[in-house]
Structures are given as structure tokens and as C-alpha cells.
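Pasting as-is:
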Amino acid sequence: MKKAPAYVLTVLLAGLALVLGAPAAAAHGGPIKLEVTGDGADNVNVLVTYKEDGHPVTEIVAATLKATSADGRSFGPVPLRSAPEGQNLYHSAEPLPSGEWRVTVTATEPSKAKATVRVKAGVVAAAPAVAALPALDQPTSQPTSQPTSQATSQATASARNGAAAATTAGDDDGAAGTPLMIGVIVLAALAAVAAWIVFARRHTRAGAGH
């Protein structure tokens, strides 16, 4: 008899747990949401969540992918496979060929859903080619220095020629002045001799008068 109240209490607690847990269980049902993005290479990432609360879908998702390229090619449908990176993350079972694609993912389990996006697969933008720069010419200072050197040489030669001309003119003046100096000396000597003769004659006359 004492066990009856304990049994009844256990049943009541179990029932209460079922009642309280029912809304949470119900919240993980209903419509699902598909978020489809390119993975930056040649596949897509499909993230599956419940639309009402955004919780991840932990149940098995049955979905397929098909795509149409900008140039008219078709791809799929191919099934989605669960990705190791996340419980509610899926990839295409086959990679997309290179190009721009209009991708449509259609899910049938645990509920129906569809999403369509545009992605680019396997196309890596090539770096712009850098045009080779032409070889640089020799510095302009070298051609400039050549005329400068020539001008300097010409100026030096002109200075030397001027100095030589001045020296020649000085020599000519010296050569012309030498006879003149000799003439002056000779005249001075003659004048001195004449003066001496005149003085001697006067002295002789003066002696004869006494």
C-alpha cells in the first residue's frame, strides 16, 4: 500500500515531462530553410535549419542539386551529401564544372524546401600581366658631360693660346726695346765724351792765358 503513492508520483512526473517536452519536440518539426552559397571553389555549401526557430536540422536531409550555366550548359540533378564540417551542412556529391551557374537545391525530407542562387565555380581571376618595362637608356648625365668636357677643353686651349700670344707680344716688345736702349746709352756716352772734350779745351785755354 505504501508503494502506491510512490508509483503514482512517478507516473505523474513522467507525464509532466512528456507534456513539457512536447512543445520542444514539436518546434523541431515543420518547414525547413535552405541557405545555399558557393564554397569559393567548385562546390556549394547548403546549410539546413528549421524556419521557425533557426535550429539546425539534425535529421537526415534528402535533397538534390541541379544547375544551368550562363552559356546554356546543364548540370545535375545530383544528390547532396552531409559535410564533415557540420551536422546540418551539405555539399553536392559532384563538383560543379567551371563557369557561372544558376543553382537550384530541392529538399524533400524532413520537409519540402527549395532555394535558387547564382554561384561561380572553378574560375580564378588571372592576375593582370605586367608589361615588361623597356631597358632604361644610359643616364643623360653622360651625354651632357661630354659637351661640358669639350667646352672645358676648348676654354683651356683658348686660355693657353691667349697666354702664348701675350708671351709672344712681350718678347716682341722686348726685342724692339733692346736697340732703343742701346741707342740711348750710346748717345749718353757720346754726350759725356763731348762734354769732357769741351771741358778739356777750356782748361787748356785757361792755362795758356796765364
